[in-house]
Design brief:
With 195 residues, the protein is of the alpha+beta class. The protein has helices at 2-23, 77-90, 95-103; strands at residues 27-30, 36-39, 45-47, 70-75, 110-116, 127-133, 141-146, 151-152, 158-165, 174-181, 186-193. The protein has 2 domains: 2-54, no CATH class; 64-75 and 109-193, Macroglobulin (MG2) domain (Immunoglobulin-like, Sandwich). It is 23% helix and 32% strand. It has a 4-stranded antiparallel sheet with strand order 4-5-9-8. The chain starts with a helix and ends with a strand. 9% of the residues are buried.
Length: 195
């Protein structure tokens, strides 16, 4: 009796499989990991596009106003000293005033986190976390700020999101700048050659 029941279920499954094959060429199935996939009649398969768990991360799928390109610029302490001296000489400052200003320049220079001004949307602020690493896993600098707090830079059409003074001499030849958005869900790492 138990064998007949198994045999009848197997026949019903076989008939159902043939009916599905005859009626449709594509079958939507659930994989062992829970993802919905489409099985094509030629043996190909792909993720089911209506599955809310699947995100399309192709460049063409990202809207233009959602793209956010951050640039990082490093200014050496020598260049900062030269620019400060030139600016103060243009204002006819005394040598003592110039030397006082030069003492305040950080030993490691400045790192600028920048963005094109056209990307900043006043009504849609982005919360970004900026970090600097100097050859170790622990950041030497970390700060969270909104992109709407950016200030115009000396370059036309570019705004400074954050200006970071590097007070000590960099220990490594290449520093790592990290920008995180959405609580670490989006991360951008940029290598900064400092020597």
């Amino acid at each position: 009796m138990g064998g007949m029941r198994i045999l009848s279920r197997a026949c019903a499954a076989l008939v159902f499989a043939f009916a599905v094959d005859a009626l449709a060429s594509d079958v939507v199935a659930t994989a062992s990991n829970g993802a919905m996939v489409v099985l094509h009649d030629d043996g190909r398969w792909e993720y089911h596009q209506n599955n809310s768990k699947i995100r399309d991360v192709r460049q063409s799928a990202i809207p233009e106003d959602a793209k956010f390109n951050v640039m990082v610029e490093y200014e050496t302490p020598e260049r900062v000293r030269k620019n400060v001296r030139l600016a103060m000489e243009a204002e006819y400052a005394t040598e003592e005033e110039i030397l006082d200003s030069l003492r305040n320049i950080p030993k490691g220079g400045y790192i600028y986190f920048q963005v094109k001004t056209s990307q900043i949307k006043k009504g849609m602020p982005r919360k970004l976390t900026y970090s600097l690493y100097d050859g170790s896993k622990k950041p030497i600098f970390k700060k969270t700020a909104y992109d709407t707090e950016a200030v115009p830079s000396e370059q036309n059409g570019v705004s400074n999101l954050l200006v970071v003074p590097v007070y000590g001499q960099p220990k490594s030849n290449v520093m790592l700048a990290r920008v995180e958005a959405r609580d670490g869900m989006e991360t951008l790492d940029i290598d900064i050659p400092v020597r």
